[in-house]
Design brief:
Blueprint (H helix, E strand, L loop, with lengths): L2 E4 L2 E4 L8 E7 L14 H14 L3 E5 L12 H15 L6 E4 L3 H10 L3 E4 L6 H8 L4 E5 L17 H18 L7 E4 L8 H9 L1 H8 L4 E2 L5 H7 L7 H13 L4 E4 L2 H15 L1
Parallel strand pairs: 3-4, 3-10, 4-5, 5-6, 6-7, 7-8, 9-10
Antiparallel strand pairs: 1-2
């Protein structure tokens, strides 16, 4: 049986027990595009995590630096100051914890504190990032991003977005293999909205079945409340829940293994209905 090893936790990828995992977003930031400032203080972050656990979340993804288009980098000390107290408070909550960071030092500190997954928007492109996770047992999510959050949406261009994203992810898999990192620990994210136009996002979404087939590893999809949904619905970020759930259901149908969302309870309920009625 194939499985996804997420630190202390193992999720089946085949058989009757397999399902699409719901990753809940926990942004410890003042400026994230949808929920900036809501969970900046430790008490509110813990309360939000507890609510997500009650709602049925599978993985909690903790982030201390906004990666919205145009956002500036955060200093190492500021990021550590935001995320480490939350990690220490939640590390025994019974749910895998993921840290959303591209900084090797944050990765190391988070691993020492007991996180189960490292989610890197830069796809572990730096040798230091690979070295930071190489000897751990944490899961890794490698994402594709063109340029950086500061300028990624200025004028993204591709000859063929699906070919280029797949080639990048395949190259990252080769780097992981060279470092001796087990395939069971790896999932891949094509990076919706990270250096892509709306046309690129749509093309990538329609290509999800082929992406998973070509790479043979779990695929994570993160489109919750993004401008991709807003462009289709005409709604501002706080009003994009219905569109996000529709995308989550379609991503599930197209083979996504993990869906990263803001609206945990609603997505979990939608998946319960889908799984019951479709079987």
């Amino acid at each position: 049986m194939k499985y996804f090893q997420c630190g202390r936790y193992r999720f089946p990828l085949s058989g009757a027990q397999s399902r699409t995992l719901v990753m809940g977003v926990l942004n410890i930031t003042p400026d994230s595009f949808s929920d900036g400032g809501k969970y900046l203080h430790l008490e509110s972050a813990i309360a939000r995590a507890e609510q997500m656990i009650e709602d049925g979340v599978d993985i909690i993804d903790i982030g201390g630096e906004s990666s919205r288009p145009g956002s500036a980098p955060l200093s190492l000390d500021e990021e550590l100051g935001r995320v480490m107290p939350v990690i220490y408070a939640l590390r025994d909550c019974g749910i895998p914890l993921s840290i959303d960071t591209y900084k090797p030092q944050v990765m190391r500190e988070a691993l020492l504190a007991g996180v189960d997954m490292i989610n890197d928007i830069q796809g572990f492109r730096s040798p230091e990032a690979v070295a930071a996770v190489q000897n751990s047992d944490a899961a890794l999510c490698a994402m594709h991003m063109q340029n950086t959050p500061v300028d990624m949406q200025v004028s993204p261009e591709y000859a063929d977005v699906n070919q280029e994203v797949t080639a990048f992810l395949r190259e990252r898999l080769a780097a992981f293999a060279q470092a001796g990192i087990e395939a069971e620990r790896i999932c891949l994210d094509p990076g919706f909205g990270f250096g892509k136009t709306q046309a690129h996002n749509i093309a990538m979404f329609r290509h999800l079945p082929e992406l998973q087939q070509e790479l043979g590893l779990p695929v994570l999809v993160g489109v919750s409340r993004k401008s991709m949904i807003g462009a289709i619905t005409g709604k501002a970020a706080p009003q994009r829940m219905a569109g996000s759930i529709a995308a989550a259901l379609l991503a599930k149908q197209m083979g996504a293994n993990i869906i990263r969302v803001h609206d945990v309870a609603e997505t979990v309920d939608a998946y319960k209905v889908w799984d019951t009625l479709s079987r």
